[in-house]
Sequence to fold (521 residues):
Amino acid sequence: MEVEVSRSGGLAGLRLTWTVEVEDQPDPEEWVLLVERLPWSETPPAPPEPDRYTYRIRCEPHEATLAERQVTGPWRDLVDRVRDVAEPSRGRPNADGRAAPSRAPGPVTETDAPPAE
Amino acid sequence: MPQPPAPRDPRAVVFARARARAGIVPPYLLLRIAAAEEYYDVAAEAARRSLLRDEPMRELRLGGAHPGLLPHEHTRSTTEREGAATGAGAATEAAAPTDAERVPEAGTAEPVLAEPAPDRRVSDAEGAESLPGRLARVEGQPATGDAAVDQAYDGLGEVWALFERVYGRDAIDGEGSPLEATVHFGDRYDNAFWDGERMVFGDGDGEVFRGFTQSLSVIGHELAHGVTEMTARLRYRDQSGALNEHVSDVFGALTEQYAMGQDADAATWLIGEGIFTELVQGRALRSMLEPGTAYDDDVLGRDPQPAHLRDYIVTDADNGGVHLNSGIPNRAFALAAVEVGGFAWEHVGRVWYDTLTGGTLRPNDGFAVFATATLAAARDRYGEGSREVRAVANGWDAVGVEPE
Fold:
């Protein structure tokens, strides 16, 4: 199972994509639980705010597009988790909408705790 | 180093001085961030100077002194500044109360001050993602020593000055509403945005971005989103969204040019110069004049902005590529401004301001309708067959946009 978080927009218009193979994680059950309890079908379109980020979150067969201010609760938990364990790839979107890899992900050197919220 | 042109009108002196100052760091040699930082220091210095210059004038006017007696440094264009100052001076004299009527408190003497002033409020989110945060500096208070707070405060003053002194628009709503900003938003937050009420600035991650308040064009960009929201209301998606972004880049760039007294040739036409760290191979986020050339970096890749309609990027991301496709109208504007020459805020900038506020645009309008509206605005202001109309038409033609 693969979880992909893609963040676009922002003042710079730079796109970042984080991808996590759930099976490779030390706690795959936690990931599955988190993904399954996400309100995938309850993401009403939000009016865009200039220069704010848009998140597209995918985990087959689910997909949701969220404005930054909608990324709260379990969505925020997922995004924070994904960002903690994966290095982002950058690049302009390709035809299939995925970010083009621009460099090999470096080793994750940080073992920091999840951001305190 | 290009020589200033021979004086042809009274403004030429100002123009030549502006050029000489801008020439301290030749804009197109600013390939490295260290140099960009030095360049921004010049803008910050200009901002500080202008505020220092305005402050005693306000105080002296309270005391009844004629503003014309004050030394006046020509760092900007000036027809507006001097016109406004003279007008305000005349009004002050006419309305000057006798000594018996004069009240000692500054607050009650308010009606004497005919000249509007900004009302800035900068808050500090202190690393959290909640708004507005703790109020850190309000209008008239001295610098706090927190660079982001003070940069936001100074920057808001410069954007306010452009809109009020050049276009006669007092603040975002034109009625002197407060200019509100929040800095230190989030943890290593890599962005700045407009939330419908205030400008919000992150500190950057320190690897790709340093703080977002370091760039005057970014501060101008955010505030201009507010002006667009109050006027043309361009919908933030696809072509109308790219135009919304474009308008913010236009007034962001003009804020910087106005603050530094730069003409269209001396201007960098860069958006967000100085916000990349020295690790990034790039000058800025975007180049209005040469979209697609602002950065080319191992990590970030190459600046993806198209410079011509044939390269328009169709994507779902970024609200339909609003930060990408804005390159197309951006180039049309910059080319027109360079073709007319002189201070861009005085001519093509005015045409764009007229277009934005003229009431003819609809929220879903795309490039072609917008181009038509700019041509109509240029004709209204400068006349059919004027060089301004020709330059605007040539700008759109160069990027492949055909007015309807």
